[in-house]
Specification:
Blueprint: H1 3-13, E1 17-21, H2 41-50, E2 55-59, E3 66-72, H3 73-83, E4 91-93, E5 97-103, E6 112-116, E7 119-122, E8 127-130, E9 142-145, H4 157-165, E10 183-184, H5 188-201, H6 206-220, E11 221-222, H7 227-238, H8 278-281, H9 287-297, H10 301-316, E12 321-322, E13 337-341, H11 348-355, H12 357-401, H13 406-412, E14 426-427, H14 432-441, E15 446-452, H15 453-459, H16 468-477, E16 480-486, E17 490-497, E18 499-505, H17 507-519, E19 532-534, H18 551-565, E20 584-585, H19 589-606, H20 613-619, H21 622-641, H22 649-669, H23 671-674, H24 677-689, H25 699-703, H26 713-725, E21 729-734, E22 743-748
Parallel strand pairs: 10-11, 12-20, 13-18, 13-19, 14-15, 15-18
Antiparallel strand pairs: 1-2, 2-8, 3-5, 3-7, 4-5, 4-9, 6-7, 16-17, 21-22
């Protein structure tokens, strides 16, 4: 049985009068008969068959023998506390406050708007929304002290006295108003409007509403409003049917009660990606270490593997390059950019940091060597200063004695000692000018690691960083130079501009960035340079893995990075053509065939009209990705086994497998752009099925949540239009009574809950 229907029957069995209401709190039926008699169970079945996701309304007053105090927001909760009502009665949570339930006292108690500040009464002629209903905001009503655990308490005498003394929405005052319920200046219009609105709900005439408002104004408002102001409030109330808690029954039927067609299917969700297999994609020297990290962190192994390969390529840097063709001098430096995409809380940061530990070991040892060299340098400088002081003393004595000084002149000509520089591997936050200085001191290249890469991308859009993108695009190649010319800063020439980049990003910011770049004409090829970009699936089940790290696998990985750092091109038979060119390797004949076949397939994709231009731009960067990966894998094997020579067949096959794997992830990552509004509509459809969006709702109710891919009107509105075409939604234009621009609301087809997910 539908859980809402089951709850409705449970309430009916408790002698509570039940009615179906929409997410907007409007009754879906003519509920006047339910104010006199509870609906028959068969009628309840009929209602929830027609509206299976309808919320549950409980008609208050004598028919259900309950009255409810409705506290709205913090102010209303404070008013409820002032009444000092007992805690031993039913209490339910609403979207903004509480409902406190009491037994009907046996005397007429009507509805009351503003019993105290933001505290209303629901009695005869009223109703409240009951758990487990869902508010339009997405908040679910819930019992805090449920009926099965707590008896319904009687109304306390001091509260009953207040209810009897105060005028209800259907009558007038029978006693002088209490001092603490006077309506002070500043809230008079709001209180009278709320009272008038409740009277409209009871379908009173304008004359009756004006009489009630006038009596309320004279009895409680201090000072009272003028008669013209009260009359204006009455007129305003009668002209605002769409702002009421539910429509007046004499108006046209609600959108909710018009029959819904069956919604058409909409492919939603992310495109599939292959699972990463470390044993197949990595060498035996690295696979056990990657597997151990991923299992202990309970994160996708893709994260660890990407960071490991990028950091290994960083250590190799410009020491050795590869020439992928048999005879051509096209040279590729194994400079890789990595990006891991995942929602918050799936261990992106721990995975990256753990994978970078071998590289940070090199950083720590380089810092220690630098400290030792600095100590030697400072000693040498102090020694030279002492020698210089002694020579000055001898010179002064020679001059005073008239002795020759020629031999001392040569002693003063000592060479200047330059300070040592620290070997750098990683930078985290640097201006491009400072990065250029660091590259001149570290020509092998550097890795820019940013835990949250969104900050890196956004920085380059700020004023004063207009040329940063151009620099990073040039530094991605790794085999060129770059020159800065700045007024006031002079000229800085970088002989070897080689920067790797590694970081993580959440789906929402990435999708927003992609839409901005490819929708606003700002594509300069920067994001496509993240060739090693992965967006893996996350395991639904979590296991608690609490064990010591695999020390053997860890030490082997650390040793590999040490050997890569000290790699001598001559030891692996690399070609050294000239001092101006980088040492290089070529493929073995078998590996060359693998590359040539792979390249031919790639070039066919790039020239095909079937691929989206955004994907073509990304895949074009794979021309250098495959040889870079092959060289990196080959050099890892070389230092692990002590061999050398041309890049092996095994390394080429593994690199081609990585490219196939990464291409699937590229399709998922760029899906925001390539699938257009259909992909965005799929994201919104998932929110609708999950009940994250109430009915009705406005477009801004979606994009204000900052859900991934649903962050602005430009993307949300086309998705709403598509879902409307597919009968997932129904649009309603609510026009203000005084004219003007209508408010657009969307109603959710209740039949989508029965669709397969």
């Amino acid at each position: 049985m539908n859980h809402m229907l089951a709850a409705a029957h449970a309430y009916q069995a408790m002698s509570l009068s039940v009615i179906p209401v929409g997410r907007n709190k409007r009754p879906l039926v003519d509920w006047k008969p339910c104010q006199d008699e509870s609906a028959h169970p068969d009628l309840i079945d009929e209602w929830w068959t027609q509206w299976p996701n309808a919320n549950i309304g409980i008609v208050t007053g004598q028919v259900s023998s309950v009255i409810v105090l409705d506290a709205d927001g913090d102010v209303g909760i404070g008013s409820l506390k002032r009444l000092e009502t007992p805690a031993t009665t039913w209490l339910s949570r609403t979207a903004r406050g509480y409902h406190q339930w009491f037994a009907w006292p046996g005397i007429p108690v009507g509805n009351r708007a503003g019993l105290l500040q933001h505290l209303d009464v629901r009695g005869d002629g009223g109703y409240v929304v009951a758990p487990p209903s869902v508010h339009a905001s997405g908040h679910r009503y819930a019992w805090l002290t449920p009926p099965e655990r707590m008896p319904l308490a009687a109304v306390p005498e001091h509260v009953l006295a207040l209810l009897v003394a105060a005028p209800t929405s259907g009558g007038s005052a029978t006693a002088a108003p209490m001092a603490d319920t006077l309506i002070e200046e500043g809230v008079r219009n709001d209180r009278l409007y709320r009272l008038g609105r409740s009277l409209v709900l009871k379908r009173l005439s304008r004359e009756a509403i004006l009489a009630a408002l006038s009596e309320e104004n004279g009895a409680r408002c201090r000072p009272p409003l003028s008669s013209d102001e009260v009359r204006a409030i009455a007129d305003h109330v009668m002209k605002q049917p769409h702002e009421l808690g539910f429509r007046i029954l004499t108006q046209e039927p609600s959108v909710d009660v018009v029959p819904w067609p069956a919604p058409e299917s909409l492919p939603g969700g992310l495109l599939p990606v292959p699972a990463f297999d470390p044993r197949r994609m990595l060498q035996r020297a690295l696979a056990p270490w990657v597997i151990d990290i991923a299992e202990r962190a309970q994160c996708p192994p893709d994260f660890v593997a990407v960071a490991t390969v990028v950091s290994a390529a960083t250590v190799i840097g410009r020491k050795i390059s590869i020439r992928p063709k048999r005879a051509d001098d096209w040279t590729v430096v194994p400079n890789l950019w990595g990006l891991v995409v995942g929602r918050p809380g799936i261990m992106k940061t721990p995975a990256l940091q753990e994978a970078l530990k071998p590289l940070y070991r090199r950083v720590a040892e380089a810092r220690l060597v630098y400290q030792q060299k600095m100590a030697e340098h400072e000693f040498r400088l102090a020694e030279e200063r002492a020698r210089h002081d002694a020579l000055k003393k001898r010179l002064r004595e020679a001059v005073e004695n008239g002795d020759p000084t020629d031999d001392l002149r040569h002693a003063f000509e000592v060479p200047a000692y330059s300070a040592p520089t620290m070997r750098r591997y990683v930078v985290n936050d640097s201006t491009v000018e400072k990065l250029g200085e660091l590259l001149n001191a570290n020509p092998n290249g550097l890795l820019l690691f940013r835990d949250e890469l969104n900050g890196f991308l956004q920085t380059m859009d700020r004023q004063g960083h207009e040329n940063d993108r151009a620099f990073y695009c040039e530094a991605w190649n790794g085999n060129g130079s770059y020159t800065y010319d700045r007024i006031g800063r002079g000229t800085l020439h970088i002989e070897a501009a080689c920067v790797s980049v590694l970081g993580s990003i959440q789906p929402g910011p990435l999708q927003g960035y992609l839409l901005e770049v490819f929708g606003g004409g700002g594509d300069d090829g920067l994001i496509q340079r993240f060739q090693m970009a992965v967006y893996p699936d996350t395991a639904r089940e979590w296991r608690n893995v609490d064990r010591w790290p695999d020390s053997e696998a860890k030490m082997r990985a650390f040793d590999l990075f040490l050997r890569l750092d000290g790699l001598d091109p001559m030891e692996i038979a690399a070609h050294e053509p000239s001092p101006e060119e980088l040492p290089f390797l070529r493929f073995t004949p078998e590996a060359q065939e693998v590359f040539d076949m792979w390249r031919a397939t790639l070039e066919g994709k790039l020239r095909s009209e079937d691929e989206h231009p955004v994907l073509v731009s990304h895949l074009a960067k794979y021309r250098s990705l495959m040889p870079s990966l092959a060289l990196t894998f080959h050099l890892v094997d070389c230092v692990d086994t002590g061999t050398g020579g041309p890049v092996s067949f095994d390394a080429a096959v593994r690199a081609a497998a990585w490219c196939d794997y990464l291409e699937a992830h590229a399709h998922r990552i760029y899906q925001t752009v390539t699938a257009g509004r259909r992909f965005i509509a799929g994201l919104l459809a998932a929110k609708l099925r999950a009940g994250k969006v109430g009915s009705p709702f406005r477009a801004r109710d979606v994009y204000r949540n900052e859900w991934a891919g649903l962050t602005d009107p430009e993307t949300v509105t086309p998705a709403l239009e598509l879902l409307e075409d597919l009968h997932w939604l129904r649009r309603e234009d609510v026009r203000p009574p005084a004219g003007g621009r209508p408010t657009v609301r969307y109603h959710v087809n209740p039949k989508i809950m029965g669709m397969l997910r």
